[in-house]
Specification:
The protein is α+β, with helices and mostly antiparallel strands and 259 residues long. Helices cover 32% and strands 32% of the residues.
Length: 259
Amino acid sequence: MSRRRMIYEGKAKILYEGPEPGTLIQYFKDDATAFNAQKRGTISGKGVLNNRISEHIFTLLGTIGIPTHFLRRLNMREQLIRQVEIVPIEVVVRNVAAGSLSTRLGIEEGTQLPRTIIEYYYKDDALGDPMIADEHIACFGWASQEEMNDIADMAIRINDFLCGLFAGIGVRLVDFKLEFGRLWENEYSRVILADEISPDGCRLWDMSSGEKLDKDRFRRDLGGEAEAYQEVARRLGLLKEGEANMVLDLDSHRKMRGK
């Protein structure tokens, strides 16, 4: 499929005009950023793996009734998605203390939380994506109360499903980020899941060893980022033994041909 006009470029993805009205093409990059893009780098093949992992998870979520922007995967790095108006709120679901939660509250990383916590952050890179409360969301009109109810309900359902999915492959779902968008139908809109779900936005720890299988390997200079992403894909049944190098070689060949 020929690529069309670029609509937006973010830290990890590029959005292009879709083939039909109301659609976009989402392209997954190998670029890696951390600490609000203060740290930058590349994880070889990350875009290919995230495309496949996110496709798999969004497809499964669709089967349990979670509405998403995902339509279908087009190739190794691109998906066809519904065009939505992104709600300017990042939703972070936490099951285990880690990252900023441990730093802010002095809770030892790895502590199982007594209950799942949902946090909200205002999407603004210039401000460092500050943490916000329901009162801020209502005051500034970033989302209606009905929309926030839907978002919270979906976040809990997604968490319940993903905890089971990852536990089944020996992975502890520590926390993860979600984004939602408004899908407009004439004058009415409904909130659906958007963006991606991948090791870029999840903390995934091996249940036995505690090994980190996510972007924390990049954030903390642990190394082995590509191998960690490959391991997640392999455990999900998306990458066979020995297939990683073949996939990356094919992807490199496609990019050399300008595909």
